[in-house]
Amino acid sequence: MQDRNFDDLAEKFSQNIYGTTKGLVRQAILWDELEAILPTLGTDPLRVLDAGGGLGQISSGLAQRGHQILLCDLSAEMLRRAQQHADAQDVSHNMQFRQIAVQQVGEHLDTPVDLVLFHAVLEWVAEPEKALQALFDALRPGGVMSLMFFNRHSLVFRNLTLGNFGYLRVNMAKQKKRSLSPDYPRDPDDVYRWLTACGFDIEQRTGVRVFSDYMKAPPADGGGDASILEMERRYCRQEPFLSLGRYIHVTARKPGQKDEL
User: φ, ψ for residue 254 (rounded to 5)?
Assistant: First the structure.
């Protein structure tokens, strides 16, 4: 088994993920989570690892705030686009780009990082526990991983609502290789168990797109994307909606305190 390289899907990824309502909601909820995380890490510029960072939308936003970013990805094409985006945002001076696997990040860090971004990558990784352990090791004591993963429960529920029973009977086996449907949708309980086994403390769980992917019609109030985002924010941290999110975001902290200078 191999981790997914997005060289052949970079354009499709860019259009389908960021150019839609889905992308808007995803980015907004992620930023909500980061706005809660950042104050807990101190006031100095942070060392940030964006592992499997893709186009670098989130990390370039952090670079705009003065934080120092190392963005790594298996895909040369994704890295090219991330650099292009950073140049357009005039933040390249705060960013480095490396074509390396998540499992190799420790070999490219001079010092541990304060924050790891690991967004929508775990569902493409063949050996998730090894990847999470590598990221745990890359963090300094008291550092945080912002983890977002594709939720298997959401995929089951979506196919139930569509009546795709045949697909469910074959355990949702993926048939198209060049597809944005993840290779390894994750059971949340597995992910929480893996994080705990690594040594992380799970501080917060949030659903990302807890209902909007299931909608068949625009909001009845005519509010469009703004109304959708309002309701996503209202329900994303409540059960049972949280566990139906297309993605689940986890704030996971490495125990301990930052070393005193």
Answer: -80, 125
pLDDT > 70? residue 177: no
- Residue for token pair 């949702």: 172
233 marked ligand binding residue = no
**pLDDT per residue as tens digits for the range 108-161:** 898 999 999 999 999 999 999 999 999 999 999 999 999 999 999 999 999 999
- To the question of whether residue 106 is assigned a binding role by annotation, the answer is no
pLDDT digits (tens, 9 = 90+) for 198-235: 999 999 999 999 999 999 888 899 899 999 999 999 99
Binding residue per annotation — 19?
no
pLDDT at 260: 42
Furthest-apart CA atoms within the chain: distance in Å = 60
pLDDT at 261: 35
Q: What is the mean pLDDT of the chain?
A: 90
Residue 63's nearest CA partner among 100, 34, 21, 36 is: 34
Q: Which two tokens stand for residue 109?
A: 């860090």
Other residues' Cβ atoms within 10 Å of the Cβ of residue 125: 26
3-class SS of residue 96: strand
Instruction: List the domains of the chain with CATH numbers.
Output: 9-151+180-254 (3.40.50.150)
b vs e for 83-101, b when ≥16 Cβ sit within 10 Å of the residue's Cβ?
Answer: bebbeebebbebbebeeeb
The whole-angstrom separation of Cα 142 and Cα 23 is 30
- Please check if 26 is assigned to a binding site: yes
CA distance 172 to 185: 10
Residue 93 assigned to a binding site:
no
Among 253, 2, 52, which residue's Cα sits nearest to residue 136? 253
